[in-house]
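Translate sequence into structure tokens.
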Amino acid sequence: MENETISKNFIEQIIEKDLAEGHCTTVKTRFPPEPNGYLHIGHAKSILLNYGLATEYGGKFNFRFDDTNPTKEKLEFVESIKADVKWLGADWEDRLFYASNYFEQMYECAVGLIKKGKAYVSDLSADQIREYRGTLTEPGKEDPYSTRSIEENLQLFQDMRDGKFEDGSKVLRARIDMSSSNINMRDPILYRVTHMTHHNTGDQWCVYPMYDFAHPIEDAIEGITHSICTLEFEDHRPLYDWVVIECGFKNTPEESPKQIEFAKLYLTNVVTGKRYIKKLVEQGIVDGWDDPRLVSIAALRRRGFTPESIQKFVELCGVSKANSSVDYAMLEYCIREDLKMKRPRMMAVLDPIKVVIDNYPEDQVEYLTVDNNLENPELGTRQVPFTRELYIDREDFMEEPPKKYFRMFPGNEVRLMNAYFVKCESFVKDENGKVIEIHCTYDPASKGGNSPDGRKVKGTIHWVSAQYGKRVTVRLYENLVNEELGVYDENGDVNVNPNSLTVLEDCIVEPALLEAKPFESFQFVRQGFFCADYKDSTEGHPVFNRIVSLKSSFKLPTA
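Result follows.
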């Protein structure tokens, strides 16, 4: 319908009101990560939301590192975050910035506040500042150093910059209101002394701005109109506006830049905390920040998730003011939906057992034409070798089958996918009673999987030629977290699922799969979607990570 109204989320409504009332004439957003770890799925929501809003309103999107804390930041994290943002499709064009490039302007802003009597140098320790700040029910006490003169504060702040004081010995505080009901407004710290080499500015600075002071100035310098952040910063908004107004970037809270808070994206039963992941890496439980069992963006990419699947997931989660958790199954639903029409369906036998077709010519090989994806003819066809000896999955054979088992068992006829009808005649066991070989006969008239006499078979199983099939390593994943015990134990450690990773070394796959390139994905018939691992695959010897199984209990909510 032409007149159909598209519902806008609350952020879009604020932006449209600001445009209509002239608080801004264009829209400029930013994604401002601190480079102190790898990004996770929650950050993907922030990236795509900020980029999406800028795109929707014909504005600009900035990518900026909030690198004001050299004690936790590394160049490794900078590079990984850049790769994540680029992979997700958020195009910052030529607008990549670093908060550290604004240190001089931030310092001048702080000097300006001192000159206005709005900031002072304090000698209180961190514990004393916490004590003086008061509680949610009790007002704070005035800092005994708040009466220092403007001249003394200017000199002390210059001395701080010149490296004359030890770490923690002095801080610069804003002079606001120690009796404010909002603890963030009780003379917050603006600068601290930290003698540490910075990844971008080296040893140029030994005083560093606090996030709550630096961030609003960065937004103002870059001309950000709407500073979209998560809900925990709602109580910081008065301080954000105070900094921008007192530093002369705007006159009222309604003007730009304007902070808007939205609810974080929480996934059930996953680990996102940096300190927990760091511990898992150090303990060797996972093989790095991009281990496919994690939900860092790098891990999701390595596992085989696509940018489109993450975009769809974020879209389904929506934008709200209320915190809530989303089931991991919804993320799996999104990757299944994205891949099912895009990727070829290949045959791979994960737990092989040999099948010999006794009446098939020993030296014969047939190349059968197989559709790459029955639901998407545009993906074309391929040639698959068929020979006398094959491998099938062990679960596709039973010596004594239960009722309604339609796969291979003695005396039963099944269809080999895209090939022939075969009938199980006998089998061979080893000294331990384990079936190691199955003998069958085939019907040459049933080529292509249909019998000319019209007889029906109920079971269809996949296979790989024993002569031409290739051995590869396949990794199957379950949730890293033991869901029955919850994410964390009483000591704050992760309750690790001991079955979170199963490595299968002797899987047999179609020869075409040996050509898989890192990050290339496929559907393995009846097994799920798999991706060639970028770390452990070598040319001609791919290692496949299972992205997701084919079955799901998740149902998309209906309107």
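Note: The mean pLDDT is 94.
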